Amino acid sequence: MTPTISATALGRRYRDQIALDDVSLTVEPGIVTGLLGRNGAGKTTLMRIITGLEFPTAGDIRVFGQVPAENLLVVALSVVYGLGLTLLQLIERATDGWGLRLHFFRIPWIMDGPWYQTWLTSFVLLVLFFLYGMWYGLVFRRWSVPGLVAFIAAQILVALLVVVAVSMTHNWSAFGHFFTTVTAIALTGVLAAVAAAMGLGGLSTIRRVTV
Predict the structure, then answer these.
(1) Which domain holds residue 86?
(2) Is residue 11 part of a domain?
(3) Structural domains of the chain, count
């Protein structure tokens, strides 16, 4: 049976201060567990890591077999905000654009279908933006401004390589054809794949973060 909480050699460092050092524990399902310790022992830091509010700088943490930072915080926020955007779009449609024929939450071609498609696309986009922004933050915390500049330069370089590759193969017409014929749900799938790639990149950066 998968443990409710499993931590192995968990550590958390704040610059020169060590808040957690080599903490390992396992909480089995259905077992009431207490967390005791003197002030400054690291109880709050441990709980913040378990709930996904902070990242460990060493070791591994699993909640129901999953990494809490990616699976709880990112997904929960994206679900809630996606539902909020979907609700606002439904109200906007029902009132014919808030009674003024103004449409703020309907994006033609991308978010103009049934409510569940709007929610799915909103959810994927929010996860994508969240992971992208989080990746920037992780890079900055690990390598400061030089790392951030290098990270941005690497993205620009990749974009230039794509432009060069498409130009050299004379595939701009096919490139444009894809974006003019792809369905909203297919585009959502492409964005989901990009979000997954960013999540893996962010996870690899988390393993190297030292505050």
Answers:
(1) 70-206
(2) yes
(3) 2
Q: Mapping DSSP to helix (H, G, I), strand (E, B) and coil, where does residue 112 land?
A: coil
Residue range 65-102, pLDDT digits in tens? 777 765 566 777 788 888 998 999 999 989 988 888 88
Are residues 208 and 55 in contact, defined by beta-carbon separation less than 8 angstroms?
Answer: no
Residue 112: is it exposed, middle or buried by C-beta count within 10 angstroms (0-12/13-18/19+)?
A: middle
* pLDDT tens string 94-150: 998 888 888 888 877 778 788 888 899 989 988 888 888 878 877 886 788 998 999
Q: Is 12 helix (H, G, I), strand (E, B) or coil?
A: strand
State in Å, rounded, how far the first CA of the chain is from the last one: 34
Prediction pTM value: 0.61
DSSP string over 116-179: HHHHHHHHHHHHHHHHHHHHHHHHHHHHHHHHHHHHHHHHHHHHHHHHHHHHHTT-HHHHHHHH
At residue 59's C-alpha, the angle toward residues 57 and 61, to 5°, is 100
Segment 175-186 shows an average pLDDT of: 83
